[in-house]
């Protein structure tokens, strides 16, 4: 079965990972801007990173036959530095019209601080001004429910970003219903030690349905598995779900969400 990984940080993966993903049916990836493992000190560091995301990484993915799309932002962990964050946000429009850029992301909250909220809102201002899709990171573990509520509240304060143009990622059992009831898209991250397992993600699909929801590996430099989406496919098959239902979650839904962006020029596999 063909699949799309809608959230995976391929700059921290090897070319061998692309090859393995293709052999399992991956036809496209979506790569949000994220934390490099350290706080970058200048706007020029982000400019170089955005050049990598929009220039080199699509070429590297193409060597393996994978279509590569990306998102741009300064992530929540670095949003405590408000002056730098504002410099980065002001620089993002230089890259927005490049091929394969899907929008603003992954923005959101990390520790649910006032500074993070300020920069989240300013990213939303940019997304509204430029009519971009939005991909949102929700906090980890004990901060997730509070952070998700804060994020939804900030989104619902405004009327210039339609809910269907927003994906709230890293949802789990205690946040998925809240996000879906707001009319937003949802992403479930399949991590080996945190967030959802393939079995938990299948449970969520069985309980809350397969509309406006997708699964991703969020593979990065930490413990993660770039083949997590195929693991989910296998879990769903073991439970007797139809191929059409599985395909909706791992292929059709990402296509539907991303297709709202005019720069999403996807070549369907033959």
TrEMBL record:
<dbReference type="Pfam" id="PF01026">
    <property type="entry name" value="TatD_DNase"/>
</dbReference>
<dbReference type="GO" id="GO:0046872">
    <property type="term" value="F:metal ion binding"/>
</dbReference>
<keyword id="KW-0479">Metal-binding</keyword>
<dbReference type="InterPro" id="IPR001130">
    <property type="entry name" value="TatD-like"/>
</dbReference>
<protein>
    <submittedName>
        <fullName>TatD related DNase</fullName>
    </submittedName>
</protein>
<dbReference type="GO" id="GO:0016788">
    <property type="term" value="F:hydrolase activity, acting on ester bonds"/>
</dbReference>
<dbReference type="InterPro" id="IPR012022">
    <property type="entry name" value="UCP005295"/>
</dbReference>
<comment type="similarity">
    <text>Belongs to the metallo-dependent hydrolases superfamily.</text>
</comment>
<dbReference type="InterPro" id="IPR032466">
    <property type="entry name" value="Metal_Hydrolase"/>
</dbReference>
<keyword id="KW-0378">Hydrolase</keyword>
